Every structure is written in structure tokens, then in C-alpha cells.
Amino acid sequence: MSAGGDISDSISNFFAIRLIHWQRQHGRHHLPWQNTRDAYRVWLSEIMLQQTQVGTVIPYYRRFLQCFPDMQSLASASLDEVMAQWSGLGYYSRARNLHKAAQRIMSEHGGTFPEQVEVIRQLPGVGRSTAAAIGVFAFGKRAAILDGNVKRIFSRCFGIEGYPGEKHVETQLWQIAEALLPKRDESPIERDIEDYTQALMDLGATICTRAHPRCGSCPLRPECIAFRDNCVGSLPTPRPRKILPEREAALLLVVAQGKILLEKRPSAGIWGALWSLPEMQVNENVIEYCMQLGINVRLISRMEVFAHTFTHFKLWIYPLILQVISRSPGHLSPEALSQPGNQWVWMMPEDALKAAIPSPVRKVLLQYTSQTEPLEILAMADN
């Protein structure tokens, strides 16, 4: 194997067969989405596994299937119901796209998941690698994957320098991925494409890991350029470092008769379509802000400030506990909020924890419900 991805057919077949044999002996075989050709289950798992580790995904995957066991149940559910089951898994655009894709499959494909990889790729939230994985595991298609784990394997094995997120590096890695696919007429192993694809996933997740790779157990060690040149730790080339910008926001835990106020976030943007605590700038006057909402409040306490890191910035969150003294007959009255489609709701904290809320809001609510003293103070004040 030579650096730069010049792969001969003999090397390609040798590479694939070695990986397939390794996977059958040492790979993962009992994940809840394995051993099935159910395209719905395969698709769901691949979407959940985008940028999320297997151990985190498994309980969400099982709960999601209990609520939405098939395409029709997912497509007919409300977005609120879908987001509630996704709450805490992060990267919420995946859930919104999953819901859109289910509805499109019902309306455009008669409820049958499309088999062609290029058609799968046109579904919302499905990229080139995800479409290939679905095609492989659900339909036995011979398609190449290139997720983060596979990029790491190829970068090390073939000595590919440069950050894999850069276009020219990614193009080179895709060329390698396509060249290494086991050839149908040369591979003597049944279900070779499924086992080969799973082997790449398993090797990257358990052996060729980002930190502390287990090179002694790797079936590719004899051909690995990074191992030969003692540069495993420096490949793949890390993302160019840049300082994340920091922002601040106050989250308002507004309490009235034991219930808290939640606001539906816009579909686009951060925490899109999730229920969240009202948010304002840290330097704003919280009393005046709430008066604009039609509620008169007093500040009970300030909770511990904490940071939540997004992909492109870090958000410092300042949670405030506020007690409602009075409410105008405006849009935040319980009567007004009983109207369907309203973007505000009063909810008991324990019910809010079951709703579609982002992780930082869940953290605030858990901290609030674990502190009995503020709850007692508010209960006495409401009486």
C-alpha cells in the first residue's frame, strides 16, 4: 500500500478479506439494529449513529421503536412526539429530518423504503456515507461508506496527511473507500459487503480509536503506514484549532402554582422545534422582560452558571428562578394557552422533563426539582 491512495485490485481484495475475517471473529454481532434487513430499523440506527456513540444510541433506539415501530407510525406522529423521544440525544435537526423523510416516503414511495442508494441519498438528513450504509445493510448494495471512524482508519493505514474535513483530503479518502470495496466476482465470502462495512465501523470504534488505539490487535497492522512510521498519534491530521466564540444567555424558570413556563423554539436554528425555558440577554432587566410577556414576577434565586458547547460556539447559561405574582389576561393566561398550536405552555416540572426539551434545559429542571427548599418557598408563596 502506498501513501496517496494508489490501490491495486490485489491489495483491495486482500484488505477486504482480512477485515471480513476479523469482523466475524472479533466484531460486534449483537447490536439491536443488526441481523435484520428491515430498512426502517437500519435507517433509524444510521441516523441516530451520526456523530453519536453506540452506547449512547442504544437506549434511545429501543425507546424510539417502542413509540414508532414502523414508517407509518413515525410519519403520522406529530413533530412534538418525535422530538420528545429524541430529547437528550442532541443534533436535533436529525429528528426533524427523520420525521420529514418518513412523511416523504409515505407520500412519494407508498410507504416502502427506496432501495437505490442515490434515491436514499435524496431523503432529508441522509448524506453520501449514510445512504451507502443503509443500502449495504438493508439491501446488500455494494456502496462505500466514509464516516469519521473510516476516515481515521484510511488516514492511518495509507498515511494520508491533511485534515479529513478539507475537500481535497476527503476526495482522496473517498477514492480509497471506493477502490477498497470487495469485488463481487473475487470475494468468496457470502454477505461480504455487509461484513466488510461492519468491520470498518467496528475497527474504528473498538481498535483504531482516536485516543489510545489498540494497534497490537489490529488486523491491518502489517500494512499500516502510520504504525510503520510511528505516527499513529498524529494521523488523521487534527482539525485546525480555533478559539470558539462565547455567548451568554439567561434562561428563565418562571413558576406559577407549581407549573413552569415553556416556549416552543422556532423550527430553524438552535434547539429548533424544542420546548425551552424563555431566554433573554444577560444584561436585560428580567422584571421588565417578563412584564412584556404579560406576567409580573419577582426573582427567587439565581442558579449555578454553566456552559454548554455547540459545534461553533460556547454558551454560558445563567438560570434564574422567578415566581409569578400576577398575570394579565393576555396570551400567557392558562385559558389562552389552552388553544391548539400555541407556542407557550404551563407545565409541571416532572411533565416538562418528559417533553421535547434540550439538554441544558433538562439540566436546569433536574437541578431545580432536586432542591426542595425553593419548591417549598414557592408553594407557600402561591397559597
Characteristic key phrases:
disordered N terminus; metal-binding; DNA_glycosylase; alpha+beta; 17 helices; Endonuclease III, domain 1; 383 residues; Nucleoside Triphosphate Pyrophosphohydrolase; elongated
CATH superfamily of the largest domain: Hypothetical protein, domain 2
Number of strands: 8
Q: What does the radius of gyration come to? A: 25 Å
What structural class do you assign from the helix and strand content?
Answer: alpha+beta
Beta strand %: 5-15%
Shape: elongated
Reading the helices and strands in chain order gives HHHHHHHHHHHHEEEEHEEEHEHHH
Question: Care to describe what's here?
Answer:
There is one protein chain. This protein is an alpha+beta fold. It folds into 2 domains: 9-234, Endonuclease III, domain 1, CATH 1.10.340; 246-382, Alpha-Beta Complex (Nucleoside Triphosphate Pyrophosphohydrolase). The protein is 44% helix and 13% strand. It contains 17 helices and 8 strands. It has helices spanning 9-26, 39-48, 54-67, 71-76, 79-86, 93-108, 117-120, 128-139, 148-157, 167-179, 192-206, 225-228, 286-292, 334-337, 349-352, 359-370, 372-382; strands at residues 246-256, 259-264, 275-276, 279-280, 295-302, 306-309, 314-327, 344-347. Strands 1, 2, 3, 4, 5, 6, 7 and 8 form an 8-stranded mixed sheet that branches. Helix 1 (9-26) crosses helix 11 (192-206) and helix 2 packs across helix 3. It is elongated. The protein starts with 8 loop residues before the first helix and ends with a helix.
